[in-house]
User: Which sequence fits this backbone?
C-alpha cells in the first residue's frame, strides 16, 4: 500500500517505517518535530537503504495538510502524530485537547476530501483507565485518568462515529501497552526531550548517571516481589503489529480494536535486575511511597491480536533492556 504516516519521525513511528519498508509498502511521512528530530529519519534511511519521502509540517495547518494529500493518491494512513506526555497533559490540557483532537479532525477531513478510507490509529492502553482485573481484553470498559488519556479516548470515539456514518471507512485502533527498547542497530530509539517519566527511559537515565537514583513507587503490592507489574513490549514487535494491521485493513470494513502487548506482566524489580544483568551496569534505586492511582498489575489479553492479525511478540525482556542501552550509548557517542 501507499501510505501517509503522520508523526513518523517519532519513537514508534520510525520503527514502523523500518517494518513497512521490509514489508514492501511505500510511504510519505509528515512531522513537526515537536517531540522528535530530523536525524531520526536519516537513521531510518541508513537502516533501510532507501530514501524517506518527508514533509515538515503540522496537522493543525489545513493548508499544509491539503498540499500533502494533493501530491499523491494514498491507500491509507497510519496516524501517530500527537502530544504524548501524561504529566505535560495535566499541566497543559488546552494544548493537548487542541493538538490531539483538532489534528485528528483535520486529518479525517482531508481523508474524506480525497477518498482515503483506511486508517490505523495509534491509541493506548491508557483508555482502559484503571482496570480492575487482568488480563485486559479489548471489550473492557474505557475511561481515562488524565488529559492525554482522554484525547486518545475521544479520538477513538470520533473514529468510531466516522466509521458508523461511512460504511466504506475502515479503521483499526491499536491499543499499545508499554513500548520499550530500540532497533537492534542502535540507530533509532526512544529519545525524550526532557526528564523521562516512563520506567525504561528513567532506568537508562540512572544507569547513565543523569539521575542519581530510580524511585520504586511501592514494594508492598500483592505481587511476587511487591512491585507493580506492567506489560512491556519491544518497540520492534509493536512496529510489526502495524504492518499486520495494514494487511488486515485491506480485507475489512468498519472498526476493529486490537491490544498490542506481550500478554504477560514484568515487575519493576524484574526490569531493573534484567537491565543490570544484561548490560553490566548498576541502576541505583530506592523504595518510595506508592503513587496515587497506580494499579498493581496490568497486562494485555492478546488472543484477539494473535487470532485475527497473526501477531505475537517475539522479543524478550533481556532484549528490550539490551537494545535500550545500546541505543543510548550509540546516540550519546554520535551527538
Assistant:
Amino acid at each position: 500500500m501507499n501510505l501517509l504516516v503522520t508523526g513518523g519521525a517519532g519513537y514508534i513511528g520510525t520503527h514502523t517505517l523500518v517494518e513497512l519498508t521490509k514489508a514492501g509498502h511505500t510511504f510519505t511521512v509528515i512531522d513537526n518535530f515537536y517531540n522528535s528530530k530530523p536525524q531520526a529519519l536519516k537513521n531510518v534511511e541508513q537502516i533501510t537503504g532507501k530514501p524517506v519521502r518527508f514533509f515538515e509540517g503540522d496537522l493543525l495547518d489545513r493548508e499544509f495538510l491539503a498540499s500533502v494529500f494533493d501530491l499523491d493518491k494514498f491507500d491509507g494512513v497510519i496516524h501517530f502524530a500527537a502530544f504524548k506526555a501524561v504529566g505535560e497533559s495535566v499541566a497543559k490540557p488546552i494544548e493537548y485537547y487542541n493538538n490531539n483532537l483538532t489534528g485528528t479532525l483535520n486529518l479525517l477531513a482531508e481523508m474524506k476530501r480525497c477518498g482515503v478510507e483506511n486508517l490505523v490509529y495509534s491509541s493506548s492502553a491508557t483508555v482502559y483507565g484503571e482496570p480492575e482485573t487482568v488480563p485486559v481484553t479489548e471489550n473492557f470498559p474505557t475511561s481515562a485518568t488524565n488529559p492525554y488519556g482522554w484525547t486518545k479516548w475521544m479520538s477513538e470515539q470520533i473514529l468510531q462515529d466516522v466509521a458508523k456514518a461511512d460504511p466504506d471507512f475502515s479503521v483499526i485502533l491499536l491499543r499499545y501497552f508499554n513500548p520499550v527498547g530500540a532497533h537492534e542497530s542502535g540507530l533509532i530509539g526512544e529519545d525524550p526531550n526532557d526528564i523521562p517519566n516512563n520506567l525504561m527511559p528513567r532506568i537508562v537515565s540512572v544507569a547513565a548517571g543523569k539521575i542519581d537514583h530510580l524511585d520504586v513507587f511501592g514494594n508492598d503490592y500483592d505481587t511476587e516481589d511487591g512491585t507493580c507489574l506492567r506489560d512491556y513490549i519491544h518497540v520492534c514487535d509493536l512496529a510489526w503489529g502495524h504492518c499486520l494491521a495494514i494487511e488486515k485493513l485491506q480485507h475489512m470494513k468498519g472498526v476493529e480494536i486490537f491490544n498490542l502487548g506481550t500478554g504477560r506482566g514484568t515487575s519493576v524489580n524484574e526490569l531493573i535486575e534484567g537491565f543490570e544483568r544484561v548490560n553490566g551496569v548498576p541502576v541505583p534505586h530506592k523504595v518510595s511511597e506508592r503513587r496515587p492511582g497506580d494499579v498493581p498489575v496490568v497486562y494485555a489479553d492478546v488472543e484477539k491480536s494473535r487470532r485475527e492479525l497473526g501477531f505475537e511478540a517475539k522479543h524478550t525482556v533481556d532484549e528490550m533492556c539490551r537494545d535500550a542501552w545500546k541505543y543510548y550509548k550509540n546516540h550519546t557517542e554520535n551527538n
In short: The first strand starts at residue 2 and ends at 6.
